[in-house]
Amino acid sequence: MQTQTTEYYLKSAQGKEADNIIRSCVHCGFCNATCPTYQLLGDERDSPRGRIYLIKQILEGQTASHSTQTHLDRCLTCRSCETTCPSGVQYGRLVDIGRQLINAKTTRPFTDQIKRFALRKLLPYPRRLATILKTGQLLKPYLPKRFNQQIPDRQKPRMQAEHIHKDPAQTRKMLILQGCVQSIATPNTNSATANILQKLGIQLISPKQAGCCGAVSQHLSAEQEAMDFMRRNIDAWWPDIEQGVSAIIITASGCGAMVKEYGYVLQHDPQYADKASKVSTLTKDISEILAAEKLPLERIKPSTQNIAFQSPCTLQHGQKLDGVVETILTRCGFKLSHVDDAYLCCGSAGTYSILQAKLSQQLLHNKLTALQKHQPELIVSANIGCQLHLQSQASVPVKHWVELLDESFI
Ligand code: SF4
Ligand code: SF4
Q1: Relative to the CA of 345, which ligand 2 atom is closest?
Q2: Fewest C-beta atoms under 10 Å: which of 19, 58, 272, 323?
């Protein structure tokens, strides 16, 4: 696509990058066919091709409007369009830049600003989140159903992580990100991971100083704040990286997609660029680790339940790991049912379920209809956001797939 980006934007690294991305788009519209918001709303401005055009208009000097901001806000950043695009357009990066450009030129309604600020000050901080969650869990029986469903039940890990990590004979060491929401809402995910990896002779290390991966701030266009979270994690992990850990394991695919981009986001930071790049190279989703290991199949007794796997967008589109979890589970003998339109987002998408509640609920309804079509007894996911979102309305239990695997060891 030809562009007439103004000198003002071409002088900035971001503007130049956005211009290059737009020029790689040939305007074919293939991506529109797999865009969840275009499927729901049928408006070209709510499609990837339309949003690319809206960002192009900003770069060419047109006045940034609230209408443009709304169409960009409605994008889930699910990156399904990237998977479909035959020209390799980096839409995810483009929409991040587009949002920052438009946010710098327009003012949001006050209530929207408050919501976004509150999310940034709550979600990435496990202690604050734990206080809110515990209060919600105490009040849960007294709340109306529509609120009550949003609060996950208290989860106790089957085995405390500190009881798992301590075998001195284990020489293979890997870092694990505890995460913010996951560490509070579903601590069993990482303890199940530690338990499985211990059986494979891998010891996990989790420095306390590491925290949120930065995705919440990044998706709310607070890029400097996101970079601070990234630098903090790099500092926390670096001593163990220098000691030779072989991977940084992430069990929430949303966080994994973010950490794999540290090298890209911090490329212009002279102090952190090299370290960030190393961190991104070492980062692996737990499915990548288990796919490369020889699993002791003789010690796994798969449940006979009919199971539906929800493949998070951050796993299949963000990290390009489509089919990896399904292959592991099938190899271990689990029965997975077919899920229609598995490429579509469930509507969780970070803070989208709160900021775009109506669209998010429509997508959730569609996703659960697809997941529950063949009457599964269990739904498994690979990302905490999707897991909690699905759990709020699903008629069967929802858990992380590593919990299922861990429970199946004999
Ligand atoms: S599929 Fe790719 S090249 Fe075609 S319109 Fe969409 S982003 Fe542009
Ligand atoms: S990221 Fe998802 S919602 Fe956004 S334009 Fe692409 S396909 Fe549509």
Answers
A1: 2
A2: 323
